[in-house]
C-alpha cells in the first residue's frame, strides 16, 4: 500500500487512491506527481484502514462469491456488490 497515494483529478476534483510507483515490468512511466497528495506514512495507514473496513463490511459477500466460484470475482465485487467502482476509471484488472 506504500505505492499508493491520494490523487485528485484536476478536472473533476474527484479523489481516489492511485498507484504512483509503476511495477518493474509493466512498461508504464511514472505519473505526473502534481495531483498526488503525499501525507507521509499516515497516508498509507488511511488507505489500509479504508480497505480493511470495506472487507469487514462485505465479508459475507466476499465469501459467497469465492465459494460459488463465480467468474470475475473482483469486477463483480467492486462494481455490482459494493458499488465502490461505478466510474469507468475504476474498471481495472489490478484487483
TrEMBL record:
Membrane-spanning residues where?
none
Record domain DUF3456: where = 1-85
Could you list the residue ranges forming a coiled coil in this record? none
The family database entries (InterPro entries) matched by this protein are listed as:
CNPY, DUF3456
- Which superkingdom is the protein from? Eukaryota
Gene Ontology CC: one annotated term:
endoplasmic reticulum
Family the UniProt entry places it in: Belongs to the canopy family.
> What name does the UniProt record give this protein?
Protein canopy-1
Originating species: Carassius auratus
The gene coding this protein: LOC113092622
